[in-house]
Design a protein that fits this description.
The protein is an alpha/beta fold. 38% of the residues lie in helices and 17% in strands. Helix 1 (16-25) packs across helix 3 (66-75), helix 4 (94-108) crosses helix 6 and helix 7 packs across helix 8 (216-225). The mean pLDDT is 96.
């Protein structure tokens, strides 16, 4: 198991260049950035992070574009993986998104992992012109269309929500078949079936020291779909920083644990990375 870092990059936090350099210098495996295009002020969608009615933190509408920030991170690093946690695929044009991902993978030497999800903010998604009730099907088709653009010399797609005429698209990603696509979301049979059908892994959010039996349905879904469960990328977001808890996750076959840097000053971020550096050295071997 590897140890990575995730967190919001905003106009008030550490610069992504400084963050990426610090993450790589301390031996972490990866840097993962989330995204929100904007937050409509209507605020009718409940925030999943609220336990007892807390307001949505302002870093949700202050976040930098993840691909711009990761491009800057790629330019000043050579080893760390560059992940999205998550990309809101239903809010993005799949042709442009495929180009962005392929370009970042090409320029970084094959270091991209694309974390994707369905999103939780209905009004945000609807501002982009998509139907909330169809978001799962939309994300599926857009990912499949992107795979064609990444891998086929003449790419095309003819779905219900995505139609691409035979087209040329380069550069191709460095990684054969394109970057891994890891699907975020909670625990449920529909999610596991989707991962087994068109994903390369699962990205749960939990600070627990164990996924318990939550991996069993994914293992069963992979068997039904003819996929190799052992090849799935299981990245726990918001993971515990307790060494015993991390060892527990490792024993369950978790691929990676990403520790969360909550928005703070640059100095505080560096202090926190220093405190976690022994975990990177212990689990990542640096």
């Amino acid at each position: 198991m590897r140890i990575g870092i995730t967190g919001f990059c905003t106009d008030e936090t550490i610069h992504p260049v400084d963050l990426a350099r610090a993450v790589e210098a301390r031996g972490f495996d990866s840097l993962w950035l989330p995204e929100h295009s904007h937050i409509p002020t209507s605020r009718t969608s409940p925030w999943p992070g609220s336990l007892s009615g807390e307001p949505l933190p302002d870093y949700y509408w202050r976040s930098q574009d993840a691909f711009v920030a990761l491009s800057m991170a790629a330019a000043v690093t050579s080893r760390i993986l560059l992940g999205t946690s998550i990309t809101l695929v239903a809010q993005r044009d799949p042709i442009w998104l495929a180009k962005q991902v392929a370009s970042l993978d090409h320029l970084s030497g094959g270091r991209v992992i694309l974390g994707v999800g369905y999103g939780w903010n209905r009004e945000e998604l609807e501002n982009h012109g998509d139907d909330w009730t169809n978001r799962r099907a939309i994300v599926r088709e857009r990912v499949l269309a992107m795979r064609s653009l990444w891998t086929d010399e003449v790419a095309s797609f003819d779905g219900e929500f995505v139609k691409i005429a035979p087209s040329l698209a380069r550069p191709k990603p460095v990684q054969p078949g394109g970057p891994k696509v890891v699907l975020g979301g909670g625990f449920g049979p529909r999610l596991m079936a989707s991962i087994a059908e068109w994903g390369d892994g699962w990205m749960p959010i939990t600070a627990r020291a164990s996924l318990g039996k939550r991996l069993d349905p994914l293992r069963e879904a992979c068997e039904r779909a003819g996929r190799d469960f052992a090849a799935m990328d299981i990245t726990v977001m918001g993971a515990t920083d307790d060494p015993a808890g991390l060892e527990s996750l490792q024993s369950e076959g978790v691929t990676r644990a990403a520790l969360t840097l909550w928005p703070a000053s640059a100095d505080e971020h560096l202090r926190q990375l220093d405190a976690w550096a022994p975990l990177a050295q212990r689990f990542n071997g640096h």
